[in-house]
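Components:
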Amino acid sequence: MKVFFNGDYLEKDQVSVSPDDRGFVFADGVYEVMRWYGDHFLGFAAHQKRLLRSLAEVRIEWPAAYKLEVITSELIRLNQLQKQDALFYLQVTRGAAKRNHVFPLPSIIPTVYATTTAFIPNSAAVEAGIAVISLPDERWLRCDIKSIALLPNILAKQKASEAGAQEAFFIRNGIFTEGSHSNVFFVMNGVVYTHPESGAILSGITRNIAISLCRELSIPVVEEGFIASSLDMADEIFISNTSGEIIPVVSMDGQPVSGGKPGIVTKRLQETFQRYALIANA
Amino acid sequence: MKVFFNGDYLEKDQVSVSPDDRGFVFADGVYEVMRWYGDHFLGFAAHQKRLLRSLAEVRIEWPAAYKLEVITSELIRLNQLQKQDALFYLQVTRGAAKRNHVFPLPSIIPTVYATTTAFIPNSAAVEAGIAVISLPDERWLRCDIKSIALLPNILAKQKASEAGAQEAFFIRNGIFTEGSHSNVFFVMNGVVYTHPESGAILSGITRNIAISLCRELSIPVVEEGFIASSLDMADEIFISNTSGEIIPVVSMDGQPVSGGKPGIVTKRLQETFQRYALIANA
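Structure:
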């Protein structure tokens, strides 16, 4: 498998990250994931914009010599993924320097690492839905930065997995914020609720497309966090993320949601999203 | 410089961290720092205990074949630090595996990386004190785990540095919790206040020794977070950490503390600590 590492296209086992890399010692970096639909990426411009925003928030400068369009197309070509579903992963760290909390001076060259991997959608989850658990949101208050400091997220996802669930929903101050690697949506009386953009959630590209598609379908959307204690009143629940698109939730903390099967609004949005993803090319 | 990496003692530039290391992609790891006083470590047993606790909290198993006593003494010997001050740094990550939030199954071998570096105490800070700034505590609620997910800490320390200060104090719910890489203490009417152990702070080894020494000196200590709005009533402020021991704070957010010079209680505790560190060997 060919990967991109600091300007070169290498076999992955040839990549050597320095133990001084601030990504390794401080989680001092950000990342992006994009889905490739065999001939195009969905939301390329939005992902690129979010990457630059994350970098700006942590004040890492994207090396001007690297063009995201070139890295993506070269990796797709070198790994012969032109006609397959694939995931593009990109990570940028501040670079390698003697361990010291403050940013290195003079500034150093960021570490840029990217991969493309053939991807098989989880059709069982897409069609039958997933089980989720709820957990207190103990994460930091800058979840809008897509940082690699993901320890709280992996611990939550692991808890979900051990409970036989596929995702963990976080609750902060009595409100559902997002999942460990997804945005979360609740349908109540025909209205879709999702947490507003803030430091409490990542501004998901799939989330934002889902909101737009709801509006096109005349499904009312309210960007308001769903109150955890109102869970019984949710008719449907679903999540969104880059790899899974729209995935129904059919149980929460062991209790069935929408009768234990994907809800009608969820299905309608999911199908609309699937069609949109295949033709959208921006 | 010789370092320890997964069982071997190598030149640092021979160490190659995999880009799949979960420390690099997820901040899925923990660390420790110990200070070497030329012939002994201070608080070796306490550091080892905290390391094992951090590992247990994130459920990484310390490889039984590695003995911390052996790693530390070999690194001191190989780097000829027997008669110098030095810092020992150890990082343990869950290891390298295909990127997936859940823990790898079957479980993988953790990555263990350790260094020793000659260390020159910052005598200006120790003697004249430092300036600090205060910032909202936006970090996660498991700061008791000494994890490598330090992005919030480095961003805070960088802000301090750019404000001409040497440390940032975090405030959560109107209470000082800790610094970006230190515990924080306030002296008011002869009583020392420091935040109690909880998920809001790291249980600092130096913090805990400082509390014991205060008690030996009959200085009253209250483990209670200092209220940020009472700052004007603080007669003295100091910080503690492994590398700096006890360091006076002489200004906060541009305002002088204890008349802009180290306070009397701080100095007394600092001198006691310095004597203790030279002879303590546990």
